[in-house]
Amino acid sequence: MDEGYRTVVGRLAGKSPNRVVFLSRLKEALDPVPDVIHVLTDENFWLTTQVDRMARRLRPRPRLVFHTWQNVPMSDACYPQPWHWLYRLDTRLEREVFSFAAGAAARNHEAVGVLRGRGFAGPIAHIPWGSDVGRFAFVPAREKLPDPPVIGYVGRLVREKGIEDLRRAVEELRFPVVLRIVGDGPLAGEAAGWRLSRGRVEWIRNIPKKSIPEAYRGMDLLVLPSRTTPTWKEQFGRVLVEAMASGVPVLGSSSGAIPEVLGDAGAVFPEGDVRALARTVADLLADPSRRARMSARGRERAEKSYAWPVWAAQTAAFLGECLGRDHAHRD
Q1: CA-CA distance, 331 to 318, in Å (whole number)?
Q2: Which of 60, 73, 79, 165 is most buried per CB count within 10 Å?
Q3: What is the DSSP secondary structure assignment for residue 229, as one 8-state letter?
């Protein structure tokens, strides 16, 4: 145990990370009674509800602060599960948590509006998720590109991540490139057969976590071409921060939180617009000074906005605010 920290490992059951319940040790984790509980878990409030109900029984009652990534307003007609009774159950648990919580941390700007639309009236802080920025060594973007240059993608191989748009965009380029795909998922079988008329596709399917920083260093651009669906849009894009920390110029689609994560440190193209993506890639590869500016800004933004110490300071300040609030519905 580190000074000031105690870790209690319990057993869970259910479908992680959405509908999970504690089987053991929750009570032990809340003894002695904390002043504030920050629940960093499920979108559907199953674990949060358990913590909420336990907290209601404790004396003195601790403040409860939950978090959310959800930037798509859910409804009975817009729900990712085929069983609508699950939506009604999730909504009931959500309202229970809303009635007790002292505050909420939203991981993107749109999530703030979703929370308000769902009826949460308490304080909300927009606190983006953190990243281990120091794990990624900064290497400035190369002025002289290799022949062919390497365009990278890191992430799950699923349709909503827009990986097929990236392949089509690369095919529109008038010069050869290497499309380097790092990841795995349902589209793996399809991606394994991809070929380029100019250049080639390299696929790194299973990569150890310790090798991820090296993978970024081998890329001249990283692209996150996510596409919004009726029930999902990009909620953060951790790979954007990791690539920026590594000095890799980054392009992202306009889906969800991508533009706010990139700020002025990356390039944004309209999601699903393959030609716009191809033009942006071509323009960046032809402009070494712009790549250099993006590389430097990216590292600066990663350190100032997304490093874990930044996240911790923002979270501690918000928990302190919630702890000091006097809510009429509490004892």
Answers
A1: 21
A2: 165
A3: B
Cis check: omega of the bond before 32, within 30 degrees of 0: yes
CA distance 281 to 133: 25
Write down the H helix ranges in 207-263.
212-217, 238-246, 258-262
Selection from 254, 225, 213 nearest residue 155 by Cα: 225
Note whether 162 and 227 are within 8 A (CB).
Answer: yes
E strand or H helix at 115: helix 109-118
Query: For residues 294 and 220, is the Cβ–Cβ distance under 8 A?
Result: no
Instruction: For residue range 274-300, list pLDDT tens digits in order.
Output: 999 999 999 999 999 999 999 999 999
Q: Which two tokens stand for residue 174?
A: 């008038």
Phi, psi angle pair for 330, to nearest 5°: -100, 160
Instruction: Tell me whether residue 316 is exposed, middle or buried, using C-beta atoms within 10 angstroms of its C-beta: 0 to 12, 13 to 18, 19 or more.
Output: exposed
